[in-house]
Amino acid sequence: MRTQVSTCGLIQYDFAIATLVPGTLQSRARLFRPPKGPSLNLSRPKINALLALALFTFAFLAAEFRFDVNVGLLAGAERVVLAQGFILGASVIGFIGYAPLLGLAQRKGHSPAAVNAAAVPIAIVGLTQIQFPTAPLALEILGCVAFLGLGLLGAAAHHAFSLAFQDDPKLATGAGAAYAAGILMQFAVNLLNCGGIAELIVLGAATIAISALSVVPQKAAESSSPAINPFAESSHALAKQACWSIALVMILACLFSTLDNVVTLSNAHGTIAVQTWPRLFLAASGLAAGLIFDLAERRYMGLVMLGIAVLSTISILAVEAGADPNLGLVVFYLSSGFFVTFFTATFTQLAPRMHAPALWAGMGRAANNVCAFTTSGISLALVTSGNVALIMIGALMLLVAASVAFVAAGLFRLPQTEQEREREQLAEEALAAPTIEEQRQAFIANHALTPREVDVLIAVTQDERPLKQIAEELGISMRMVQRHLSSIYQKTDTQTRAGLTKAFPSA
User: Fold this and answer.
1) Which CATH number fits the domain that encloses residue 448?
2) 33: phi then psi, degrees, rounded to nearest 5
3) Which carries the bigger pLDDT value, residue 187 or residue 155?
4) N vs C: which end of the chain shows fewer Cβ within 10 Å?
5) 227-249, pLDDT tens digit by residue?
6) Is 262 exposed, middle or buried, given 0-12, 13-18 or 19+ CB atoms closer than 10 A?
7) What is the span of the domain harbouring residue 489?
8) Domains in the chain: how many in total?
9) Mean pLDDT for the chain overall
């Protein structure tokens, strides 16, 4: 699994954990339970964010595909996996570097758009070499430059999406739709097989569009600073869940990099073609994943994700056991769409509650690419060794490790239903409400009642005893009781004993 599962480079593979539980009831409700909504409310910021994320998916995958093809032509099929690891590593630098660059721009008094704009020429310079390679070494070096720029743009797109869809009930649907759109665009370009100057123009225009569409308002960008983010939650539980989420992403990245390398090598050798019709399953599964994840306020997203991990492991075992590579490719694509959508939805909904939203929005993708980069050599060695038993054992061990990470990340603890949350909130509010005695003291203080007036107030509101009896109990004259009562009426803006009794707090 690779953030960009590059089945010959093109599958963007992202995975993450959605149920990251902050420490408070309110924050849990916001993170686990987005507000209900019948449909996707497409405001202008949301439309821009969806387009930016879709174009990023397209540009990244198209560039990765062309890079893999040209590396295979210039350096041989065996070099493709390793070179692909280099560009994924470069993209990680871009994803992680975006947040500090954004902060630096703000401190220098520059607009947030400056970071996005600076990433465009970086990406285009590298994309030019990818489309018109001069030598294997130049292709790999400038390929890394291209993906550094694409990583910066990807982080910006995810940041914009996170802000636009904050607490949106259709966040996962939006993520899945953007991913599906990007895949369809890339599929169409592959069918045209244009390459060269035409594809460079398209990719260059896409990077410019991503830069423009990912610009967030100044105020929103400032809230991404750790010092002033108003939504940041200093929760140890949240930090723990976030760390386990990253660990899970990396474990699954290792799991899927094996099959990814199988597919990449098969494509490089010409035994399968990743740009053909099975790729449509990737778009369909991404969209389906978004719709499924948003059901029941994303209550079952973690459990669905575990099932997909098992399915993906089975696909690895089947391919290594001699199954038709195209069958494995279809299953792999179906699984990949779910992972990408899950990954994107999880970290973009988590980001606004972290101290550095601009960093966390793309953190899952970065973690996935880190693992794809660091393990590509090991994975390639396993794939090329021909030791089927060893590959199967490794895949099963990673699945077990992933299951442990699922448990540690809290994905098997189903979030509360809306009714359960409401009951718990009412109970907490009841416990936090002031007591009758506290309410009475506040009433007395707010109306500046004297000690004797308080005695009269309590006596006349206790029951309907005659004033003469109250006077005798208090040891004062009837006339004095009436005088105190008249003063109380005036101070409390009441006119009758019944009105005073209603206004004075009682059990």
Assistant:
1) 1.10.10.10
2) -120, 90
3) 155
4) C
5) 445 555 556 777 887 888 888 88
6) buried
7) 434-503
8) 2
9) 81
